[in-house]
């Protein structure tokens, strides 16, 4: 057994979201990984005088004698991966994170060990999918030798590394394409993106729990017909990336962003969640949940229910405030409907008249929007119970004519009973 030491530039790479890809298509993911290794990584490593030390199931560990070679290899790999992914559906893309460190390594039977390797692996964990993070030593050696811009992320405390490490993110001129349309067209109703919850435990084994929490909340919120929820395959493209809600708003055009974190200590788990209005950056709602980590699925179900029943009303209240803020001449159908509800809840003749005007505006803006018809029917019913207004018969007749045929369900959401066949209002109650 021969053990030696030497200074080396270490490149660590892994596939972001590998467990998700394997879960969705094990054979296809393994085949894609092998093809990338043979067609891209091995030739590129050889071209830049590197040595492939080993593959790690979902990644690579590579040794270079030169920082410049390591960094040039990494940037070219990511550029070619971006081109390769441009024709691949988002859900099937293989995106690598890369970390590079310069340090002393122990070489034993061809394998390498030591803090120099460990730091490279931790840097890889900080990188965005398709991105590169390097230590200060790499940045210093590469400065002036390569035309590569760096972003200083400051000193970072890395797991199992005694001292903080100053980290730089490589800002490549070749951006990773997202393969999305120039502008997404979303419905008028409130839209929300649930970002992957952050695993704050420092234990990669907890990633599955954090991802599961996000997936369960996406599924639960998707059951609300009043909400438009971004699909998991889209929102999970932000996993592992340092960003703010403005990035998500620009990417998806959503009004609200739900984000959170998971931290486990012993047999206790703490889950935090917060809802942010993307346009203003204001926090709409936030809460924290502490639970015993006994039954994983029971905890996930309990927290999912708690978050969902809190988020939906919070969005409803935020939508009311948003509608009130907007100029009357700049209302869409949903905002006009919300403004109508705001006046309707005041329950007086003057506001009821304004409510009817806003509900009619919602109908004029979008004749297929059932909310406008329901709101106007409700306003007429409310008016029938107020002094000096229409008679109840007139109110029922008006409401009946306003409910669109396709929306004549057995029970009207405004509190009036509809005949299941004729659609006529057969009972009205004052709210």
Characteristic terms for this protein:
16 strands, Rossmann fold, alpha+beta, 8-stranded mixed sheet, 3 domains, 431 residues, Alpha-Beta Plaits, disordered C terminus
Q: Compute the gyration radius: what is it?
A: 28 Å
CATH architecture call of the largest domain: 2-Layer Sandwich
Report how far the terminal alpha carbons are from each other.
84 Å
Helix vs. strand class: alpha+beta
CATH topology of the largest domain: Alpha-Beta Plaits
Q: Would you identify the regions where 5 or more consecutive residues have pLDDT less than 50?
A: 173-184, 388-392, 401-431
Number of spatially distinct domains: 3
Separate helix tally = 13
CATH homology group of the largest domain: Nucleotide cyclase, GGDEF domain
Mean pLDDT: 79
Estimate the global geometry from the Cα principal axes.
elongated
Short summary of the structure?
The chain contains 13 helices and 16 strands.
What would you say this structure looks like, in words?
It is a single chain. With 431 residues, the protein is an alpha+beta fold. It has three domains: 3-170, Nucleotide cyclase, GGDEF domain (Alpha-Beta Plaits, 2-Layer Sandwich); 191-315, Rossmann fold; 328-427. 42% of the residues lie in helices and 23% in strands. The chain is built from 13 helices and 16 strands. The chain has helices spanning 18-24, 26-47, 67-85, 115-126, 136-142, 207-222, 232-235, 245-252, 296-325, 333-344, 349-365, 370-384, 392-402, and strands at 3-15, 51-55, 59-64, 96-108, 111-113, 132-135, 150-156, 165-170, 191-194, 198-199, 228-229, 256-265, 268-277, 283-292, 417-418, 425-427. The strands form three sheets. Strands 1, 2, 3, 4, 5, 6, 7 and 8 form an eight-stranded mixed sheet that branches. Strands 9, 10, 11, 12, 13 and 14 form a six-stranded mixed sheet that branches. The longest helix is centred in the C-terminal third of the chain and has 30 residues, at 296-325.
């Amino acid at each position: 057994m021969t053990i030696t030491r030497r200074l080396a530039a270490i490149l660590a790479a892994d596939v972001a979201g590998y467990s998700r890809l394997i879960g969705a298509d094990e054979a296809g993911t393994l085949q894609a990984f092998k093809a990338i290794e043979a067609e891209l990584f091995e030739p590129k490593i050889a071209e830049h005088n590197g040595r492939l030390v080993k593959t790690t199931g979902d990644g690579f560990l590579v040794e270079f004698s030169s920082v410049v070679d390591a960094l040039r290899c990494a940037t070219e790999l990511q550029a070619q991966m971006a081109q390769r992914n441009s024709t691949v559906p988002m859900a099937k893309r293989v995106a690598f994170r890369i970390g590079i460190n310069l340090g002393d390594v122990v070489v034993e039977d061809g394998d390498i060990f030591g803090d120099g390797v460990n730091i490279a692996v931790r840097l890889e964990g900080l990188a965005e999918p398709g991105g590169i993070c390097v230590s200060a030593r790499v940045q210093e050696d590469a400065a002036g030798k390569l035309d590569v811009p760096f972003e200083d992320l400051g000193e970072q405390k890395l797991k199992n590394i005694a001292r903080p490490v100053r980290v730089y993110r490589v800002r490549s001129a070749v951006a990773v394409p997202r393969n999305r349309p120039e502008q997404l067209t979303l419905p008028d109703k409130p839209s929300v993106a649930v970002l992957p919850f952050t695993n704050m435990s420092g234990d990669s084994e907890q990633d599955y729990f954090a991802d599961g929490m996000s997936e369960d909340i996406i599924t639960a919120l998707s059951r609300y017909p009043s909400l438009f929820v971004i699909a998991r395959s889209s929102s999970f493209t932000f996993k592992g990336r340092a960003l703010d809600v403005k990035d998500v708003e620009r990417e998806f055009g959503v009004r609200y962003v739900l984000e959170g974190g998971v931290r486990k200590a012993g047999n206790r788990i703490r889950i935090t969640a917060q809802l942010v209005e993307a346009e203003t950056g204001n926090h709409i709602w936030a809460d924290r949940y502490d639970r015993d980590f006994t039954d994983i699925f029971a905890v996930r179900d309990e927290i999912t229910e708690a978050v969902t029943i809190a988020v939906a009303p919070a969005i409803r209240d935020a939508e009311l405030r948003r509608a009130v803020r907007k100029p009357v001449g700049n209302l869409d159908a949903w905002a006009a409907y919300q403004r109508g509800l705001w006046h309707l809840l005041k329950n007086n003749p003057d506001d009821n008249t304004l409510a009817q005007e806003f509900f009619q505006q919602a109908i004029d803006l979008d004749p297929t929007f059932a909310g406008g018809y329901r709101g106007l029917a409700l306003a007429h019913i409310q008016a029938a119970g107020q002094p000096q207004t229409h008679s109840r018969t007139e109110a029922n007749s008006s409401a009946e004519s306003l409910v669109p045929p396709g929306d004549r369900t057995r029970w009207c959401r405004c509190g009036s009973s509809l005949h299941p066949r004729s659609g006529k209002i057969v009972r009205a109650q004052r709210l």
